[in-house]
Amino acid sequence: MRNPLVRTAALTALAAAASVAARPARAESAIGANVGYSKTVDGQGQFTGGAQLRLKFLPLIGFELLAGYRRDDVEAQGATVLEVEQIPVQASVMLYPLKIGPIRLYALGGGGAYITRSSGVNSFISYGKVTKTNFGGHLGAGTDILLGGSFFLSGDVRYIWLNIDSCDAVEEAYKEKRNADYWVATAMINFKF
Fold first, then answer.
1. Is 146 helix (H, G, I), strand (E, B) or coil?
2. Which of 4, 52, 89, 164 has the most C-beta neighbours closer than 10 Å?
3. Is residue 30 classed as helix, strand or coil in its secondary structure?
4. DSSP type of residue 101
5. pLDDT (0 to 100) of residue 21
6. The pLDDT of residue 152 is above 60
7. Residue 133: how many CA atoms within 13 Å on its side-chain side?
């Protein structure tokens, strides 16, 4: 190897590989339940619930699959005109930049499928009932509290960007802007396996 840059790169790669081999990452898997509170940009707040599966293979990177249930009432001209029930199924990449004692901070982002059933009510009953799967993205941040043993607690806040056709229909019918984006604050209990 005549080129010092190539030699340095090769030695760095070899040192990194040796470092990883000397102390392999300990995989951590957990399953759990969650409760939360969500609120659309234009709507009222509602309680949510669900379950999550977490997989953490590297010290700084993990994955989460979360499914739940939420509902929202959409109002126009001062009355509820649309009831929205939703089963969000989110897949997230989680980054763990900092751990201080039993506290582990994380940021997450990803996408999801949102199985949405919209039912027109009151003056919008002509809309009927429509079930559709929508797709959206999300970003969030939170913390894990590692209690030792076989479980840990988590809490996070996420913002979800979502477009729902039924909200667009309300906007068109009533000439009032409606936004289906929402945020959710969630508390979780996770059991390691």
1. strand
2. 164
3. strand
4. T
5. 45
6. yes
7. 4
Place of tokens 């929402």: 182
> Residue 18: what are its φ and ψ, rounded to 5°?
-65, -35
Question: Residue 54: is it exposed, middle or buried by C-beta count within 10 angstroms (0-12/13-18/19+)?
Answer: buried
Report the amino acid identity of residue 191. Answer: F
Strand partners, 132: 116
- Residue 173: CA atoms inside 13 Å, Cβ hemisphere, count? 18
Give the chain's domains with CATH numbers.
26-192 (2.40.160.20)
**Which position has the token pair 């959409």?**
74
Report the percent of the chain where pLDDT is more than 70. Answer: 87
Q: Which residues pair with 159 in a beta bridge?
A: 139, 183
Distance between CA atoms of residues 152 and 99, nearest Å: 14
**Which tens digits make up the pLDDT trace of 59-101?**
899 999 999 999 999 988 888 999 999 999 999 999 999 999 9
Contacts of 92 (CB under 8 A, 6+ apart): 63, 64, 65, 66, 108, 109, 110, 138, 140
Reading the block at residue 16, the tokens are 């990194």
